[in-house]
């Protein structure tokens, strides 16, 4: 019904606990702090890479500057003393002059001829020393193939990491006469000092920003969520049967105003629903009562009809009169009439089902008598013991047997023959009753609904049978469950002894 759908929707809205999740205020607060910290982190990363680039540019500039100074000093010395294309022994005579250049610029360098042989050296990497103090053909090829006639190589020696510059030396006519090897050890003091100064200043700024952001986020989150908190309090007080009040807020934002407007409309709908509910609840109560009573009266009528038909076929048609069978027939009818009487008495008490009147009874005998009204060829009844005494309400247990057997018979398709099995087992502290059939089984989509009142997959009946069976078993302190497949269904009832 439309009213029931409205009520259900309202209940679903109120079920979740607000305190079970992080509040919107805390989310806003944490989000703002997170954004500040993220911005700080990004600035730190950008700063780090910026200083890395500045350090590289600074060291590259310093390397080029010192190399140019060395080239000029070496070229002056070579031109003055006419050292071009001279032997190694001739270059040794001017070793002190080259050493003086090294001390003046406070650097190391080496000079090789065009074949790679050392003319002067103050520092050489291990790979050149291992090559008998001679440049490798690979390095010479790289220098000659380079456009600038110069190659930079990263070295990792015992003294650490450094860059090596290999470049051709030219005379005043532009003719190469040698190769300059210049190892450059980076001066990191500049970048480190500058970076430390900047980071110290940045830490102070970040600390101040974080404090301001925390205060700002606190007040902003409180201001933004204040209208929502007022709405939450009103919703908590809202109920279908309560005297609900509408919400009125000044200076509300567009989104909050829409939310308030929706809430006020809901309050109006609740008032209308409450009036309709009061009327429909009374009508539904009588309808449910009428359905339940009709079902309870219908249950004993079926076995009474079957008993009369069975009596007529077995004992009145070409068969001798049997006083014992007549008594048995009368006893069964009286039991079913008593059942109808109990239901009628319960109807007078506002359709309340009969309360279980437990007595120590033989469940084997009662179950066997309950099955006699059905075709015996269809039902296979077995018991582990001839007598098993359990606290039972006879009338209600007959009702359980009748309902389950009828359901089993009706579950079998018209093309098949019904084969039912009822088995009673006595366990140490309880008794187990199994009802099996060869029907089509219960679909997985409805397996959780079969014990619900008014639920049925049949075209006839009101769907109260299995619901009443479960209530009866519960009133006896027992349990009922089932398993089903395409080959049939098995109900299992456990009762305490």
Describe the protein in words.
- The protein is of the alpha+beta class.
- Among the domains are: 251-354, Helix Hairpins; 356-497, Histidine kinase-like ATPase, C-terminal domain (Heat Shock Protein 90, 2-Layer Sandwich), CATH 3.30.565.
- Helix content is 55%, strand content 16%.
- It contains twelve helices and twelve strands.
- It has helices at residues 2-14, 24-81, 88-92, 95-105, 126-130, 137-145, 189-236, 254-315, 323-348, 363-371, 394-410, 465-475, and strands spanning 110-112, 118-121, 150-157, 160-170, 176-184, 359-362, 379-383, 389-392, 420-426, 430-436, 479-485, 488-496.
- It has a five-stranded antiparallel beta sheet, with helices on both faces. Strands 7-9-10-12-11 form a five-stranded mixed beta sheet, with helices on one face. It has a two-stranded antiparallel ribbon with strand order 6-8.
- A hairpin with a 2-residue loop joins strand 11 (479-485) and strand 12.
- Helix 8 (254-315) packs antiparallel against helix 9 and helix 11 runs antiparallel to helix 12.
- The longest helix is centred in the middle third of the chain and has 62 residues, at 254-315.
- The chain is elongated, with a radius of gyration of 51 Å.
- The chain starts with a helix and ends with a strand.
- 19% of the residues are buried.
- Mean pLDDT is 75; it is low at 1-20, 348-352 and 454-463.
